[in-house]
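Encode chain A's predicted structure.
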Amino acid sequence: MGTFEEGILTMPDGRRVGFADFGDVGGTPVIWCHGGPGCRLEGAPFAADARRAGLRLVGIDRPGYGRSTPQPGRTIAGWVDDALAVADELGLDTFATVGASTGGAYALALAARSPRVIGAVACCAVTDMRWVEGRAITAANDGIWDAPSREAALGIAEAVLGPDGAAVRNVGAAPLAAADRALLTDPTYARCWEAMVPEMLAHGVAGYADDRIADGGGWTTFDVRRIRCPVVVLHGTADTMVAVAHARHTQTLVPHASLDLRDGLGHISIATVVVPVLDRLLAR
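Encoded structure for chain A:
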């Protein structure tokens, strides 16, 4: 994964927040909001490309992943304070943000609630689940959205991810786009994936269950109409996990957002074009 710096912050409520800084301190900072499940290391496979483009990737573990303390009852917008605390720790006055899959909503919430964000990319992102039609075609919730309690949600998450997170470790067994399968067999990406998986499961299924609970009610804790920075909604047309309809809907919600659809790319492989998309976005 190359060299990078890691750190842990302690928040006012006593929670720990883990982060990883992959870039040259002279580069334009980009806060990477990982998927669900995911972790602070998700941007690692693309860090070298980012450095060459003059970008400094910073990954942050959401509560319940990696080095970050679980936080039952957390919300999407509630995470913004964690991100800003890391930005302050690293001395980042302004920054861009990218959110992959589940993380797309967190990137948009950060852009909506902080004028320090200079650009945002929602990549293969789950849209606002107040959209009834989208909710009906989304399998990502695995039944957790209808769970009567967090305890029940944790039980569903354990069943979905399997013993010791087997479904995460063996993601290649899922129905995936050809481009996703090719990326998973790339030696560099495979080494990064091996390092990421234990971090995704560091707290068992807590992070995943709390992600699903947080997004199940839709984007009620932040207002995308308050976003003033440029936004790209990026999606692969071959995504088998989050339908491209999500991207089309998100673009209608975010003022002045542009839609960038990539033929043949899937839910995982779409991340391979994030750096050039960010580079063009920030050059506007």
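The chain has one domain: 5-282.
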